[in-house]
Amino acid sequence: MRLEYPPNIKIILVPCTAKVDIIHILRSFEKGADGVYIVGCLEGSCQFINGNIRARKRVEQAQTLLDKIGVNGERVQMYNLSAGEGTLFAKFAVEMDEKIRELGPNPVKLAKKKIDLMKQNELNCELN
Amino acid sequence: MIVADKKPIEEIIDEIKRHTKILILGCNECVTVCESGGKKEVEILASALRMYFTNNQQEMLIDEHTLERQCDHEYLEEIRDRIDQYDAVLSLACGVGVQFMAEKYHATPVYPGVNTCFLGATEQRGLWTERCQACGKCILASTGGICPVSRCAKRILNGPCGGSTNGKCELSKDLDCAWQLIIDRLKALGRLDDYETVYPIKDWSTDRAGGPRKVIREDVQV
Amino acid sequence: MNVKTPSKLEKILASGQLAVTSECGPPRGSDPETITKKAELIKDYVDAINITDNQTSVTRMCSLAACIRLKLMGLEPILQMVTRDRNRLALQSDILGAASFDIHNMLCLSGDHQSFGDCAQGQNVHDLDSMQLIQTVRHMRDEGKFLGGDDIKRPPQMFVGAAANPFADPFEIRVPRLAKKIASGVEFIQTQCIYNLDRFEEWMKLVRDRGLHEKVHILAGVTPFKSAGMARYMKNRVPGMDVPDDVVKRMADTPKEKQADEGINICVESIQRLKEVEGVHGFHVMAIEWEEKVPGIVERAGLYPRPEV
Description:
The complex is a heterotrimer of chains A (128), B (222) and C (309). Chain A has 128 residues and is mainly alpha-helical. Chain A is 52% helix and 8% strand. Chain A has helices spanning 22-30, 51-68, 86-103, 107-127; strands at residues 36-40, 76-80. Chain A has a two-stranded parallel sheet with strand order 1-2. In chain A, strand 1, helix 2 and strand 2 (76-80) form a beta-alpha-beta unit. The longest helix of chain A is centred in the last third of the chain and has 21 residues, at 107-127. Chain A is elongated and about 65 Å long. The model of chain A has no long low-confidence stretch (mean pLDDT 94). Chain B has helices at 9-16, 30-33, 39-55, 73-76, 95-104, 148-151, 178-188; strands spanning 2-6, 21-27, 61-67, 88-91, 110-112, 114-124, 127-132, 168-169, 172-176. A 4-stranded parallel sheet of chain B has the order 3-2-4-5, sandwiched between helices. In chain B, strands 1-6-7 form a 3-stranded antiparallel sheet. The longest helix of chain B is centred in the N-terminal third of the chain and has 17 residues, at 39-55. The mean pLDDT of chain B is 96. Chain C is of the alpha/beta class. Chain C has one domain (8-300): TIM Barrel. Helices cover 39% and strands 15% of the residues of chain C. Chain C contains 11 helices and 8 strands. In chain C, strands 1-2-3-4-5-6-7-8 form an 8-stranded parallel barrel, surrounded by 6 helices. In chain C, helix 8 (228-237) packs antiparallel against helix 9. Chains in contact: A-B, B-C. Chains B and C meet through helix 7 of B and helix 5 and helix 6 of C.
C-alpha cells in the first residue's frame, strides 16, 4: 500500500499488547518520548482472550499517574485495529503526531535538559 | 495475607520532598501478591517520582530495591551496607515492615508507601476482601468457618442483627451479611441446630484491647 | 402474680392484661421540654415509654438523662441501650446509674451502624452484642454481681426487654433467634412495625409451636403511616420492613388530605386484629414524630383506660 506516516514515530514490536506494562510506558517518558501509543487488535478478537483489554487498563492507569506527576496523561493513547487495516494504522499515526505536537514536548525531557545545562554552567564556572 | 493498598502519589511526594536521596524498598511477600508493594510497584513508583522531581527541577536520587521480606531481621540486614547512602527509605511493605525497618535503622527516616488494610484473601484478581481481625481467640469452629468478628460490621457473635436484608448487610447491597453466610453454611453442614447455642461474652483481652500482643514459643526459641 | 422487679410494665403483663408502650426520641439539643412535652401528650394512654438511644446513629440527648426526666414526671421509662457506643464497663455503669433513679425497664439492642448517622468516621464498640447485654443485666439483677464477679451493692431491678423482627432475613432463624434471646434471659419483646399481618401470624404460630409465647411477653409493634409516601418509603427503603402492596395501595388510593386518617385507621385495625392473636401480650405504638396521635389510636383500639397496678 506504501502508506505514509510521520517519520518521528518509533515502532516497538511486541507479541501482544498485553506485554506492555505501565513501567514500559513510564520509562519511555523518562527517556524522553513525547508520546506513547499502543496499537492492539480489536477488542473481542484478542488471540489471548483479553490481552488488549488489559493493555487498555494499563494505558488508563498510566494516564492517571502521568496526570498526577505533571506529564499530561493525554500523551498516552490506546488504539485498536485489525491486521488488515493499514490505512487506519497510518491514520492513527497522523492523529497521534498531531495530538502530541499540540501538547508540545515532554516536560520531563525539557526539565532534564535545563538541569543538565545548569550543571554544565556550574562546571564551567568552576573550571574558569 | 496482609492486604495493602497503594497510597496516593501526591501524599508520598509530600512526605519525601524534603529529602534528596531516597531508597524505595519493596517487599516480596503479601504486598507483592496484592500488587501494592512488590518489585513491579517499586519500579513504577520510582519512575513516576523521578519524572515528578525532574519536572519540578528538584534534584532527587531515587533507587529501587525489593527484599524477600521486611518483617525479618535477616532480610533487612541485606541493606545494612547501603542504607547510609540515603536520607530516607520509602517502604512499600505493610505497616509491620515499615516499623521493623524503623526499629532496625534508627537514624534513617522511613515513610510508608502503602496503606495497610486488613488480613484477607484474593477473591479474584484486583479484589481482596477481609477474612480475619486477629482477635487472638479463634471462634471459627462454632460459626461454620465464617468469622463474624471480621465480616460482620458490628462483630455480632449472636447474629444477624435486624439490618440483614436478602442476605446483605445494612451497610451495603454489595456486602454479604456474615450471619447469613454462617447460617447457610451451618445448614449445608447439617448443623443448623448449633445456631441456637448462645455465644457467651467474649474475652477481648487477646484482641487489640489487651494492648500490643506477643506470641512466645519457647519450644522454637534457640 | 409473680414479678421479679418493681416495674409497672412487668406487673401489667404479669396480670394478663394487654400492655401498651410507646416511644420518644430525645432531642438534638439539651432542652428538656422537648422530651417532657412529648411524654405529656401520651402519658395517660401508655404504661411505659421507650427512650431511644441515639437512634439511627445520630447524636442526641442521652437516653438515660431523658429517662430520668420521665421518672421525675412520675412516668415509667424504658431505657433503650445499644451496644454500639459503650463497652461492658460503661454499660454496667449506666445500668447502675439508671437503677439509682429506680428506672426498672431496659431494652437491649445492638444499634444501627454508625455510618448511617452524623459520626460516620467514628469507631464502634460492640464489646457485647444485644444478647450478651441481656445476659449482663440479668446477671447483675439476679446474681447481684458484676460481670467481673464482684458483688453489687443494691443491684439493679430491671425488667429486661429486647427487639425482634419477625420479617427480617433469613426467615428460618427468626424463631430460633427469639429462642436465643429467651435463653439469654429476655422477658419482654417489642417487635418491628407490623404491616404484613399474615406473615406476623405465621411467625406467631411458629413461636407458639415451640411454646415460646409462654416464656416471653410479646408486644406487637405498630406505626401509623402519615402518608402514602411514608408507606412507600418504609416498604422500599427501610431494611427489614415488610409492607405488603395492598397496604401501600390503600394509602395511595386515599385522597391526599385523608391519608393521615387512613394511616391511623390501618393502625387501629391492625391492633384490633392482633389482639386476637394468642401470645400477643400488648402493643408498642411507635408514632414517629407524631406522638399526639397515640391517645386516639389507643382509645379507638379499645385499650383505654390503662389499668392501675
